[in-house]
Fold this protein.
Amino acid sequence: MQQSCSDTLAIAKPMDGVFGTDKEPEMASEWLIKLLAWCEGERERLQRQLDMLKSGQVRIGEDRGIGWVDTSSKSIERVVAAISELDQLLAECGERA
């Protein structure tokens, strides 16, 4: 199979045309930087929430019809899982930087 010049250019710059203009990859980089900053901020927020839950400063509960039931341990599990996921994403981005 013979390749044309346009095929070669598409292989050499696979993102060309994906964003529409030459400026848009730069905009995508800015967007990714903002997304990473959000991930870092969200991770910090979740860590504060986890610290408060573990210390007993904050408790989470629900009314199951028999009164208030403490569900803080379930919330702690969810927050730990979310922090772990954000840590994994941030570590992957750090490795690629």
Notes: The beta strands are 61-63, 68-70. Residues 1-12 have pLDDT under 50 and may be disordered.
